[in-house]
Amino acid sequence: MDDPLMLARLQFALTAGSHFLFVALTLGLATLVAWTQTRATLSGSAVHARMTRFWGQLYVINYAVGIVTGLVMEFQFGMNWGGMSSLVGQVFGAPLAMETVVAFFVESTFLGLWIFGWGRLNRWLHLALIWVVTLTAYMSAFFILVANGWMQRPVGYEMRDGVAHLTDLGALLTNPTAVLAFFHVGFGGLLTAGLFMAGVSAYHLFRRTAEVDFFRRSMRVGLVTMAAAVFPVVVFGGMQFAYVQPTKQAGTAEAVAAEAGFAARFGPGDYQAPGLAAAGEAVMTLVWSLLFLLAVAALVKVPFGRWLVRGRIFHVVVMAAVPLPYVAMLSGWVFREVGRQPWVVYGVLTTDEALSDVRPGLIAGSFVVFTGLFAVLIVVNGWLLARYARRGPDGARLGAAPPSDGAVPAALTPTF
């Protein structure tokens, strides 16, 4: 607890990694909810309308808690990383400002209209709202990855008086480390949401629910989404290796040359990627292989609806697999972020230079508070998702008409 740099790094790793868990499910689930509402609007299908309400309620829960984690996480830039804000904030802050406008103004506003406009707005307008919410969610993710991509591969800037200045917005926005990561994360979100939808459906089918048609359709949508996303995830992930930092490739000629160059520019130091990065890459690859096998099994199962309903062993496998995309995402994030060390901005700014000039006790205190807060938020989110998922479609209050007598619906009455 006496090393402020390690505490600050660990704090940001825990909070950023935790926040990313919410983002992945939000991205994918928003897309699936928009798709089911489109089906319901175009066809007038009652089951797809119920699917929209049920899965939409779970999406709103995850989104609401995820927004809180994002707000808390961004406080750290000013608290712990003042050197980063001072030296590269003019470049790094530009995409973050765009993300703030998109996420906290546009996306949140349209989501509120979608939630409270149910039954009050024209059905086509209401459908347009959820698509705006979905598109702005992806825009928000893109701008975040633009900022992160610049940290991985700084482009479109110049240093003047020791401060980075943005000179080419186009280069910043089209940085391959950002664009490829965006598609990688986007398909990863669809994979996560698809398996989440399939896992919840498998739970109800395993328990022999009366809502067989509802969860059979939901499971099919989830499995098809997962199977469609699992291969693009690895394709866009693999394409990023063309831009991976040489120091992540220990022992190669490129790594030796990069380390010698850094030593000449910045002085002697350890410029090799930590061993934890390689472990993250190995875990990510292993978990993707398991997901690929599950996707193959899903493609065999999906055409035969009765197998989706009766395959109890398959139900257990799908439920057990729900955490796998999260494991893959976190291990991939470790490879991408930890492997960049000792740099905050690769080849430009080290973590030591980016650290704020604060006492170790303050960072230790914020570490305890932030870690505790995020732990509570993760537990609350998991509890709420599990509680409302178990209730099934009849327990969904999203879009439900208020009771005519003004009484509080039973599903909204708190139970202790």
From TrEMBL:
InterPro entries found in the cross-reference section: Cyt-d_ubiquinol_oxidase_su_1
Pfam families with a match to the protein in the record: Cyt_bd_oxida_I (PF01654)
Assigned protein family: Belongs to the cytochrome ubiquinol oxidase subunit 1 family.
Coiled coil start-end: none
Membrane topology: Multi-pass membrane protein
Protein name in UniProt: Cytochrome ubiquinol oxidase subunit I
Signal peptide extent: none
Organism: Actinomadura vinacea
Organism lineage string: Bacteria, Bacillati, Actinomycetota, Actinomycetes, Streptosporangiales
Entry's localization field: Cell membrane
Assigned keywords, A-Z: Cell membrane, Electron transport, Heme, Iron, Membrane, Metal-binding, Transmembrane, Transmembrane helix, Transport
TM region(s), chain numbering: 12-35, 56-76, 96-116, 128-151, 178-200, 221-243, 276-300, 312-335, 362-386
